[in-house]
Amino acid sequence: MEIKNLIRENILKLKPYSSARGKYLNGILLDANENAIGSVINQNSNLDLNRYPDPNHNDVKEKLCELINIPKDNLFVGVGSDEIIDLVVRIFCNPSIDNCIINEPTYGMYQVVCDINDVEYKSVLLTQDFQLDVDKIKSAVDEKTKIIFVCSPNNPTANLLSSDDILRLVKELETIVVVDEAYIDFSNQKSLIYESLNYNNLVVMRTFSKAWGLAGIRAGYCTASKEITEILYKVKAPYNLNSLTSQSIISAIDSSNLKDEFVENILTERERVKAELKSLEKIEQVFESETNYILFKCTGATEVYNQLAERGVIVRDRSSQPLLENCLRVSIGTKEQNDKFLKELREVL
Ligand SMILES: Cc1ncc(COP(=O)(O)O)c(C=O)c1O
After folding, report:
1. Which residue of 3, 194, 304, 329 has the fewest CB atoms within a 10 Å radius of its CB?
2. 155 in contact with ligand 1, CB cutoff 6 A
């Protein structure tokens, strides 16, 4: 597929900002108007916080590529997946002209980013069992459709979407398909990241905010064809990834066994909470989960949500979303937090 035909003309023509650290990272650095004496914090750090970070993310990419076994040219690192969603929309969608397809109910940021960028989004409902409605998606696509957002496992329904369906979209449509795998570490299914080496219109996003326990550092990445990663690097803010975040990513990868322990712990708790929820008479349905949260249905969900909040337990009310009448979403917490949630929920019900 010719990716160039999908990219906005102004972005194709864009002469990117040429940043000081893009060319030289070492030497007597008098090129970026930094404070050469030092920084007011972290005097003993080897991070050189007084210096702008590497705009090309070389060290981070090297480490990450080794971890996921993907060539450097196929990787882009962003300030969370949220930055990547925004960049992709800005690269491909002309405001007021082009459109995206969002498969609802799903993660709210795809819609917000479209709204911010004045890009129309077409909402296609998932099927009753929360899978992609491929035929409806295909009939919603028109010549102005540039991106289809697919979240798998999906937030908030917690299920994986069929990878055959996703790949059908990738193969059969002349659009970019963005697959958001924020929760893939909690699933026992294979990731689609390696498929992004086979199809130049497939972008697969991952984040450090969930299984890695690093929501506070704001780091995410995507794998995609070289044509797409090159444009992402061209369009992003020059120093998007700060030095502290980059250092944290590298340390995290060195401790990836800890991430596996977290996941194991969360999965054990997820199954326990699921079983407890299923045993409660007033809970109408507990949906299967391939994530670190559970979606469940109970009569008067909004009232239950409010009463839980009054008792200091905050869950997410998803009942206003399509297909999710009376549905609440609860993240899996520590054992103690889950016990408290279950205790208060039993009382509220
Ligand atoms: C599906 C999905 N994608 C992306 C994100 C945000 O990821 P990040 O923290 O990397 O911006 C979230 C956060 O809840 C999410 O649920």
Report:
1. 194
2. yes
